[in-house]
Amino acid sequence: MSRHDSRSGDPGSYRDRKSDGGFGGGASYRKEGSRKEDSEGFGSSLPKQDFDGLTPFEKNFYVESSAVASMTEDEVEAYRLRREITVEGRDVPKPVTDFQVVGFPDYVMQEVLRAGFVEPTPIQAQGWPMALKGRDLIGIAETGSGKTLAYLLPAIVHVNAQPFLAPGDGPIVLVLAPTRELAVQIQQETTKFGASSKLKNTCVYGGVPKGPQVRDLQKGVEIVIATPGRLIDMLESHHTNLRRVTYLVLDEADRMLDMGFEPQIRKIISQIRPDRQTLYWSATWPKEVEQLARQFLYNPYKVVIGSIDLKANHAIRQHVEIVSENQKYNKLVKLLEDIMDGSRILIFMDTKKGCDQITRQLRMDGWPALSIHGDKSQAERDWVLSEFKAGKSPIMTATDVAARGLDVKDVMYVINYDFPGSLEDYVHRIGRTGRAGAKGTAYTFFTAANARFAKELIGILEEAGQTVSSQLAAMGRGAPPVPSGHGGFRDRGRGLGGGRPWSK
What we know:
The protein has helices at 14-18, 66-69, 73-82, 106-114, 122-132, 147-160, 180-194, 211-219, 228-236, 253-258, 262-269, 287-296, 328-339, 352-364, 378-389, 423-430, 454-463, 470-476, and strands at 85-88, 137-140, 173-176, 201-204, 223-226, 247-250, 277-282, 301-305, 316-322, 344-348, 369-372, 395-398, 411-416, 440-446. The protein has an 8-stranded mixed β-sheet, with helices on both faces. The protein is globular. It is built from 18 helices and 14 strands. Helices cover 34% and strands 13% of the residues. By secondary structure, the protein is of the alpha/beta class. Helix 16 links the parallel strand 13 (411-416) and strand 14.
């Protein structure tokens, strides 16, 4: 018995799909989990699952409205062009141009309208009909594009069409995320939009006591949001299972691969029925991300917002200064003196040690700085974030743990004290500002050790219409770096000036 009346669809079956080619005519479900995993180590005690004789389930809930059906191909192409939507796949549905034509049930629409949204974002406009049709989906869109609701609202519809949980059942929807911060952010949206359906959820991540998470899992929850390591721990301890998961989301798949989670992802997916619906979200599309998608998705739709080529948000002004390592701290202080006006400033460092050292020095010099990184307890990280969001400590230093999943709407400035280890991370770091249509500014210290990134960085700056300094241009041509003198960044925008330290 389903929670809500739902439209019938073709559930398909594992038996039907094993004989078909997979994504791009390559891998199929027969190959899933075929790569040999280490026989010892984390996750090695997970049982081998038997997927024969699975009960079919319903997953196609999309009925195209007359308004959408009446759109001509020219109108569809014009809409996609205007909103920078590119699609691939068989039988791609037309985009939905406003909320009233999506076909969401009333209990979902009430939450959407209550949230005050005006129109679907591009990833929602095209992603919603794709996800509601029950097909696997690859979504490529930058952070802050609205992708959480692009998979969450169809997930709620999906859950409400499934039989109620029985004692001992695991979740119906599983969302995997790379960081605690992103997982918590997703849970907040899940709680808000799942309330009208009385859907239960829990967030499973490390760094905090297991007790409350275990209790939630044992009571039964329809939706689990998890980081891979803690989820495997829960599975090995038999606190939950994934036998009922029919809707799987991998959020920020590129980041999970960057963080070395591929073995854990493979072990988790080996526990999930292969005829599930899988939604695979990424901000970038490197070969590693594509290869994983080929192995775990079947005949997917693919929707790309903007370009697959790496590029920065055009609403962000980017300034890059060539410096030597020992100039950095003095340059940082000069920059803060110029821009500090009470706005939130996020400063990125490469290491936890560097993060703590610079934060300590800033505080000694009278600047209201706090730090966040992976060695801090979850309680301390939550407190630092709350102080930063409230503006009580408007300067926050961070390692890349905060580069994604940090939900602070009004960060005015991002400073790359250390240049990150990839251009993808550079784009994600500076993307913490300029969100939701706002303007933002990013400052970056670039040293001789970063010279290998010069050419690609110049390409990102030029694509966004930013000024490339003569020193950076020379580095891009292979010339040795010449650190700037005592001047520093030009056109820094408004600030207090006069070298005054911060005071309230």
